Protein 1
Amino acid sequence: MNVLYPVVTRSLSATRADSVGDKDLLHTSWAEADRLKAGDRAGGSTDFKHLTLNLTMIAGKITGLIVTDVRFPTSLGHHGSDAMHTDPDYSAAYVVIETDADDGLKGYGLTFTLGKGTEIVVCAVKALSRHVVGRALEDIVTDFRRFYRQLTSDGQLRWIGPEKGVIQLATSAVLNAVWDLWAKKEKKPLWKLLTDMSPIQLLSCIDFRYITDALSEDEALEILQNGKRGQEEREEYIEKNGYPAYTTSCAWLGYSDEQLQKLCTNALKDGWTRFKVKVGADLEDDKRRCKLIRSMIGPDNQMMLDANQRWDVNEAVQCVSELASFKPLWIEEPTSPDDILGHATISKALSPLGIGVATGEQCHNRVMFKQFLQANALQYLQIDSCRLGSVNENLAVLLMAKKFNIPVCPHAGGVGLCELVQHLIIFDYISVSGSLENRMCEYVDHLHEHFKYPVSIHHAAYMPPKDPGYSTEMKEESVLQYQFPDGEVWHQLIIDKKVEV
Ligand SMILES: C[C@H](O)[C@@H](O)[C@@H](O)[C@H](O)C(=O)O
Ligand SMILES: [Mg+2]
């Protein structure tokens, strides 16, 4: 089916949504789209956008896209280590987009990597840039669904995906920069840009291809319309209390027991009540560490386990059963992230023990999440702001999670991930799920000092960002110093033979 997407913007929702309601509006604009399309075929000179809408222009044509390989040597302190990724250097392919508008605003985006291979993502971003440079921002955001499709469906590039792996990480970096720029133009933090959008505008950002068997556009619209009810109260609640978080940074796998104890003591003092522990390399080691943490946090605080894909399916059931006495809430990534039916088997086996399965940080697109949901293969869904195709694809997944009634607990263990994903989960609470039950967002206490608008944590909760944008902008001096391999920091580490290049 060849569909012309209705183009819907702020002014449309502001004028007509009031009188006819969004549902009607959806159909009105689809009908209009068809009529206009017919007009085009008949040789009419219809300007679709300007006939349908009375736009307030978002100024600027994208004139440049710069991408940088930025790496932080976190492996030296074992930060971020787990059973599979023993020596991660938290890194990013960092994108800056510039426009010819005279407001001087730039869009900043990133995707998270672990050091080696960042150069490959950088290369993929460059390959995608031809779809971005030369485009008016206005054209992109008023028909975001089409733009998303263009980026993910390049007839040649898609062969190295599609919508997965390096090319999807690159798509995310580019689109994160576009969303940052859009939010800055609107002078709103991204979460607020999203919560202020009408249901129909939000829909117009989502590519529903491949998921309509699980979530139709009408169902998504209904969810978003229902989400408008009580939105103001929820916004007030979040402004006051923040979004609940859990910490992972006390118990990376490479930390010694002493370090673990020290970090856990401090975290408890700071008011943390939910702790994630890395497991999976050695069961006896896992038992010792879990025992230590449980004894420190007491019976009432929550503990989650993360095996980072280390086990086979039956092995996972066996190992987690042996750790069940420590009362973990979930086991995260127990096996291959691609093994949806394996996760379903594990979920079923662990259910009598009261342990759920969590996954998503390596779930590369909405189709996989759809299947996880359809197969009852997860009980906690972990979106990732840089693994999925940016905000656009995350919106699709949040809506599916709502339909399947599965709590979303985002992944944020990486550089910049806390900064980004806080916007998505705050939007989720205010406009989609409307609930905090069984929900929390990951937090790791690393590298925030390199961001211009770092996260603000208060009483173990993410306080909603106030600065315009997606909180993606890094400090210029950090980018210069940590650029790989020529930044000052890497230069010195290489001279001192502290790292292998
Ligand atoms: C290599 C990384 O630090 C991962 O261990 C991390 O993202 C982790 O899986 C998490 O859930 O935070
Ligand atoms: Mg994890």
Note: Residues 306, 308, 332-333, 361, 413 surround magnesium ion (ligand 2) (CB under 6 Å).
Protein 2
Amino acid sequence: MSDHQHDHDHQDLPEEVQTELERLAECLGQLHDPATSLPLDELDAEIEVGFEGDTVFVGVTLGYPCASEEESWSARVHEACLPLLKGGPLGGSQLQFELFSDIPATPAGDVPGPLQGVKNIVAVASGKGGVGKSTTAVNLALALAAEGARVGLLDADIYGPSLPTMLGTEGARPQVKEQKFFVPVEVQGLQTMSLGYLMTEDTPAVWRGPMASGALNQILTQTLWGELDYLVVDMPPGTGDIQLTLAQKTTLAGAVIVTTPQDLALKDAIKGVEMFRKVSVPVLGIVENMSLHTCTNCGHSEPIFGSGGGERIAADYDTRLLGQLPLAMAIREGTDSGLPSVAAEPQGEIAGFYRDIARRAAAQIWLSVGDELLPEIEIS
Ligand SMILES: Nc1ncnc2c1ncn2[C@@H]1O[C@H](COP(=O)(O)OP(=O)(O)OP(=O)(O)O)[C@@H](O)[C@H]1O
């Protein structure tokens, strides 16, 4: 997958070939995009078909990073095209397929300079502490990057910045430029910034009120983020003033709400959904963490905290369940040792859960940004 378009030389194709290519494009428009469950022709997807020599070229451009999906798209596109390649004007041709990603930007008003190159700011929030919000944020950021996006991660958890521990960057100090800008610390392919990088022994362990939101605002707007497709913000837990200020001050592309299946956590997750709704920030979906416990001895999985909670609130509040994570020792060990699951084993099962969540969340941003509903079909 790449993020630039394949250029075919325009040529005068015989009319029957043109017609056949149009049929092909129509056929491709029926294919369902797995991250949104919508057919391509209901999305702002670009379908490009071309013919040169004895090869039919097909390019599909989606508005979210989807590197790990190229193979399955290729298989489905081949299957869909097969009948047209068997006979008729395109009979006997080869098929060459490419999947592209063109990530749109959330329109933002007056953003400070350092945030101008950031296409989308995504908040990862939870109504209550300890549900695995930071673990989700860091793995989501890594998963978006693994899917091909340029990603930054801002640890805005003023109560206990955990990013340096989770990414093994304790003791890192961002460089300062022009005496007022921080240069993000690069690790595992992410641009990262954390209040933890700035804390010294003299810094109060817990910031409160205006001081906390001031510090947060400062690292958000005074970090030289550069060109990013997504800036993932690990929000402080809860739904208080700081969270509200952050949601209002930045043009958020959307919010991902993390919860565990217990009733109490679910009630707090609802407060989270309501808070973002109040300030018109799209809720991209719910991540249910610690959903199932898998016994390390026998491999049996059980919903020890109850089941179906995340799905229920997603349905009740007209949003979606982006994914579920098991309560797994490997997830805890990863974040505690500085190598989160997605970085430790990018092709592993757990990384797969996070990558699915990442694609679904990013696809929701694409849907909410999409200005045109009709697909662009290009025949060359
Ligand atoms: N799915 C999981 N399986 C096992 N352990 C997990 C899982 N998710 C998170 N943890 C562990 O639970 C603890 C709390 O997670 P985390 O710090 O991400 O939560 P949080 O909601 O951000 O908490 P806080 O509100 O304190 O910042 C960590 O030790 C983390 O490694």
Note: The radius of gyration is 23 Å.
